[in-house]
Amino acid sequence: MASMLLTSLRSSPLTSVQAAQFGKASQVSTSLFLHQIYLAEIILCVFALSVFVIRYANLMPHDLARAALQGLLNRTGLPKDAVDYIVYGTVIQEVKTSNVAREAALGAGFSDKTPAHTVTMACISSNQAMTTAVGLIAAGQCDAVVAGGVEFMSDVPIRHSRKMRKTMLSLNKAKTLGARLSLLGSIRLAHLAPELPAVAEFSTAETMGHSADRLAAAFGVSRLEQDEFALRSHMLAKKAQDSGLLSDVISFKVPGKDIVSKDNGIRPSTMEQMAKLKPAFIKPHGTVTAANSSFLTDGASAVLIMSEEKALAMGYKPKAYLRDFVYVSQDPKDQLLLGPTYATPKVLEKSGLTLNDIDVFEFHEAFAGQIMANLKAMESDWFAQTYMGRKTKVGAPPMEKFNTWGGSLSLGHPFAATGCRLVTTVAHRLQKEGGQYGLVAACAAGGQGHAMVIEAYPQ
Fold first, then answer.
1. Which among 18, 107, 45, 144 has a CA at the least distance from the CA of 412?
2. Which domains does the chain have, with CATH numbers?
3. How far apart are CA 122 and CA 103, in angstroms?
4. Hey, how many other C-beta atoms are within 10 angstroms of the C-beta on 202?
5. Catalytic residue positions?
6. The predicted structure's pLDDT at residue 119
7. What pLDDT, in 10s, does the model give residues 222-270?
8. Which end is more exposed in the chain, N or C (fewer Cβ atoms within 10 Å of the end residue's Cβ)?
9. Contact of 94 with 157, CB cutoff 8 Å
């Protein structure tokens, strides 16, 4: 049994189309059901900066997801009825389209006979969508699955306060005029205050930015180091964009407005300008700022995953193999963002590889301080022995192989779509640089994490 990931698309401010293919190599003993599962093609709808964005204000999440799906179909020429299943990830759900996978699929013109469901796992939601697709193929349930993710931060759900909601529900059930008037009379001005989506961890009541600031301090990551890494991300992303390397991005036509044709969060600055920004979370002495944090982003992604037999029969050439993947979780209070440190050695051991075997690394950049803290944790024997039960350190990726086309700090981070972008970038970099193995790693809310090993398909 063999499977292949054929195509994927991503969108945020609406960006690009990426192609990548997954498959397991010959180590059947490690992961029998992942043998020869491929990523064939990837599409990314441009990632758009979402802070006070009026450009997308009249859209809904399924609009971006639909654009990514349509871009995938256009890029591959894939018959709509050739897809057996669709899986999408999302984090902040629009209540009208809670199963956004199904609504986007119908809007994109897929057969109404094609099942679709939506998953959520914070910032690794599209990773979960992809590995769910792999599982469906590995189990022999499907031959072709489209997976992806979408996030729409320009119109997040804003609710009435809990007291106001309870009053309104009680009003709906009140049977007499007197009861209704009594309930209306109980409303106070404070009850009218809106309730914004939670930005803090439910279990700890701490925001991710505050946690990133504490993590950076714990590992001795300076403000200067964070700003330097953030500037590196923007400079590399700008270079990649100008060189035409971000070929996975598709343009998006905003109804009645302009066309967004490229990721618009890339903003190379200077160290002097970045140094002027004040701490965003721990004031006045924190080190995490708007400049060294990923920004709110709109975007969507879509990838086509197929069995090898199906893909080759339809004339598709895979982009990469999926070698293996793992999910991890740890203490959400003090190790919220250390998922890559825990997941990287596990996925390497599972796939029978070492850090030196990896040619391309793509880690999700939630915060510059988070990235630098993970790299320092991976280089620490003490951390490995104290918290990971390992005799020696994991070892940090060499920077010449690390996020060399930019990352979430510069390209943007539409929560549920980022995983597909990471995989897409690895697949393209392996092709461009002639490498064999790539590794994706990401942290996620709740103290969770993910890592995946990808192998280039022979060209």
1. 45
2. 4-155+298-313 (3.40.47.10), 323-456 (3.40.47.10)
3. 20
4. 9
5. 123, 443
6. 98
7. 999 999 999 999 999 999 999 999 988 888 877 777 777 777 889 899 9
8. C
9. yes
